[in-house]
Every structure is written in C-alpha cells, then in structure tokens.
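Convert to structure. Protein one:
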Amino acid sequence: MRLDDLDPSKNVRDQGRGGGRGFGGGGGGGLGLLLSFLPMLLGRKLGCGTILLIGGAALAFLYFGGGGLQLADGTGAAGSQSQSAGTNVACDTQEERFACQVLASTEQTWSKLFQQQGQRYRPTTLTFYDQSGQSGCGAAQAAMGPFYCPADQGVYLDTSFFREMSSRMGAKGDFAQAYVIAHEVGHHIQNLTGVADQVRNAQRRASKAEGNALQVRMELQADCYAGVWAAQNANRMEPGDVEEGLNAAHAIGDDTLMRGAGQRPVESMFTHGSSAQRMAWLRKGMQTGDPNSCDTFARGAV
C-alpha cells in the first residue's frame, strides 16, 4: 500500500520498554486473563478492545463493535479522551512509521466520512510499547496483539506482533498490517457512535451464547469498517493488497483458530466470526466504501 507521501499521524505516543505497571486499570476485563487455554478464552468477554493471542496457534480476541454509522452526537461518545502515560511521540522504525501513516490515513478518511454526516471525527491515539505497557484498560503485554481500549479511546501496539503474524499465522504483507490497524480504528468508530455501549448493555442481559453472537456481529462490523477505509483509499492500493487483507481475515477466523489449537469448531462459542464471515465482511466494505453497508445487526446479515 502506497502511503509514503503521508506525514505520520501526530496522535501517537511511545511508552518504550517496560511501560506497564502490572494488571489493573478500568474499562473492562483483565487482559492478562487471556493467557490461558482456548476453551476458557472463547467464553463471552466484555474486556478492553482487541487482543490477538499467539500461543501455538494464534487466538484472536477482537472486542467491541456495532451497527451502521449512526453517530451518537456532534463529537462522538461522551467521556474524556485521556492519554495513557508515555514518553515521546515516535514513528522511528519502519514498522512504526508505516503504522503511523496508516493511522494518518484513517484520520483523513473517517474525518471526511463523519463530515458528510454533519459530524466531527475525534481521532484515536496510537500507543507503541515494547514487551509491556499500560493502557486505561490495564496491562499491555507482548503476548497480546493490537487492541483498542475504550476507557482511554486508544489503540495499543507492540510492532513485534507483525512479525509473529507473518511467521506464525502466514498473514504476510504490509496491507495485512494495515488491515489490523484499520480494524482497531473500526472499534474506535463503534465507540464514538455509541453502538458499542448498546451492545455491551445487551450482552449483560443475554445468555452466554447470545452474548457471543452479539460479539461476532461487533467484530464483523469492525472488519467491514476496515474494508470501507481500504475502499476510500483505493488509489493507494497495490496489486496483492486485497489478497493480503483477505488472507489475514481468514487467519483470525474462530474456526481456523480453534482448529489450529486442536479444538473442534463450535459455532456457539464463536466470538469473532468464522474465517468465511470475516473475509466476507471485509470484502463488503472494500466493495462498497460505505460505512452504512456495514450493519451486521440487520436481520439476516450474519
């Protein structure tokens, strides 16, 4: 994907090595609890953001989601946008710079789309950390992939994840990396629209299976939003980018991850959607370029 002409986003922080202070913080569940076995992980989770755990076979937990682009108010969801403790803004390495350019591209894209709705887009903040860090939702650790924390409306990333994604999951290419970041920004969109809160409230009243089904719709909607971003930047796409994105979406489907972990796929335990579903919704966003086409909560949509 051609992003070299873009200045990196300024909404970036760097916690450096060992920025975490143990588990804690608010906004959702304890992220460290993900370091367990697959059956434990596939229950209904209401924790912070998106987490991709690679252990033998990578296990993706991409939290939060929502329906179409129904904006909550002129500025997005209520609540402060506090930034986590950090040091210097840094887009120093090649991987960091690319991530910062992807973030800049999402800011341009979603600002335009929100403006078309008569609304103002409030960007997320991307925080880099090395091995361990701290978010408003608790600890960030290298075993976690990129995740979104609604408590501080931030995306957290240890870029070593991209190497793990390529080597262990077979999800290679710069657009695969861009898709992951765009998906996390999709969760930020869902938080701004207020739909994430609506879904979490519904999950509190739902059975485990019903809660999982809601979570699937949330994740698929974030995939679709990532596709919308890609479509809005079609002039920057290069041959093979679409295939890289779809391959990454396939790699983090619940059925693929469960088989990779030696488990029989059980649909009622899915929390992110099957590989086919994730690919389909990413593709839909790419084909339409319209966030309103991403209503995964419509009857019969999933």
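Protein two, convert as well:
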Amino acid sequence: MPFYVSPEQIMRDKADYARSRIARGRSCVALQYAGGILMVAPNPSTALHKISELYDRIAFAAGGRYNEYEALRKAGVTYADVTGYQFDRRDVTARALANWYAQTLGGIFTDSTKPYEVEIVVAEVGVKPDDDQIYRITFDGSVSDEPGFVAFGGQADQVAAALKERFHDDMTLTEALGAALEALAAPPAQGSGSGSGSGSGSAAGNGVQATELNAAHLEVAILDRARAHRTFRRLRGPRLEELLAESRAASAAAEAPESASDAPAAQAAEATPPASDDPPTGPPSASGDGIPKP
C-alpha cells in the first residue's frame, strides 16, 4: 500500500512549490491613473508577452511560467468571445472572467499533481474612475479585488509596499509610469525569500538596478478610458521613450527642492565653529592686558 499523506500536507506542499517558483520571476504592476489603467512588466523579450488584450475594455497580465499563463490567456479570450456572441458584449466583464479563471485554477490546483505557477491580473476600465476594476487571481484560485493598484509575481509584497508610498488618486500617465518604475526598481527587503530558497534569484529578477528599466526591457500597455470600443493600447518605441524621459525628469525635479532646502542648514552648520574643550586664550573681555596674575 502507498504511504498515507494527509490532504492538508499535500495542499501545503503544492502551495509552497508554486509560491517559490513564482517568486523566482520578476514582479509586474497594474495601477489606475486619471485616463485609465496602466500595466508595466519588466520583459526584455519582444516575442513573449506578459500583457495582452482579452476583450473590448478588459486586459490580461500575468507572471510566472509563460506556457501556462499563455494557455490561460487563450482560453480566456475564447470564453469572452463566446459569451459576447451568445448573449451581449456588455455581459463580458472583468468580474466574470476573474471568477472563471478562479474556477479553472482552483480545479487544477486540487486535481493535478503539479499546480500552475502563475499569478493573473484581469483589469477593466470603466467610463469613470470609480467603475475601474482590477482583480488578482493566484495559483490556487483565490480572487482578490485590488482597488487602485496591484503588484504580482516575483517579490510582490516589496513592490506593493514601495508602490503604496507613491500612489495617489488622479495621477497623470507620466506620474503613474514613474511610480511604477520606482517601485519595480526598489531593492527587496533584507532576508526576503529566504524561506522559499529564491532570495538571490528573485532579487535579481526584481530589477534592483534602475538602469535596466529602459524601453528595451519594459512591456507597457494601457486601457485608455477616452477610446471607444477597444481601449487596449501598447506603448512602445519613441512614445515609450518620451514617457520614460518625462517621468524621470519629473522625479528629478521633485527631489531637487528637498536637496535645496537642506543646503542653507548645511551652510549654517559649516559657518558655526565647532565647540572646543580647550581653555580660552587672549585677554579677558572685561579688562586686563592678558598677563596672568599670581
């Protein structure tokens, strides 16, 4: 007879395996801005996409194992097209797709020997910012509604903490891209990933060197609220380089006033002579010729 393993232990082992494999990749982010939803993923490949269109106002982004989330993306496109054809295009929503992905990933996690090593984000842009929807689906079929922004894949917790400090409502596209780049380039926390055995790989994968995050190593797409029908649009080439230059110039301008405000204090500190413990020399301030008296 085979050895008995409790279902709890099996599920724990599957979750640890999938979590450690996903942590070896690079983190991606999706966040709202005034004109829609921005998605940014470090991706030097021009053939393998992490961000794609699912339907008219719905986008798909994923991190993890490419062949697995690409199969899920194609299945999601088929599900959306069939639903829109049989019923109405307005019946295809990000919530329905997120629930469908959750059922699919949950069944794979429970029934198969090896779970999928993926994390998925389904985003839908609305007519107003309050109507925007961002859902995160993990490898075990769990769904979470992420208002404002979400980080997934890789060391997502560290990236989300850095992004939370920079995110605010009604951001422009330039500000949103700058916040995403700063969060992705932020170094991971000390000791992160030590439990899963992926600390060094994930640290490199998160792009700790900001110089690597240029137009050639980024995949950027938006859901443009102002566009009718199909809102998905990729940002590449000269347009992406222009946005990168503007975002870095804005970040440098924001840091300049802080350094300028510290300059007068530093000059005053240099002008003030340091205190000394030596006895004073020279004549007393009141009277005398400076010759010590017996």
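Strands lie at 28-33, 36-42, 51-55, 58-64, 118-124, 133-137, 143-145, 149-152, 218-224, 232-235. The first strand starts at residue 28 and ends at 33.
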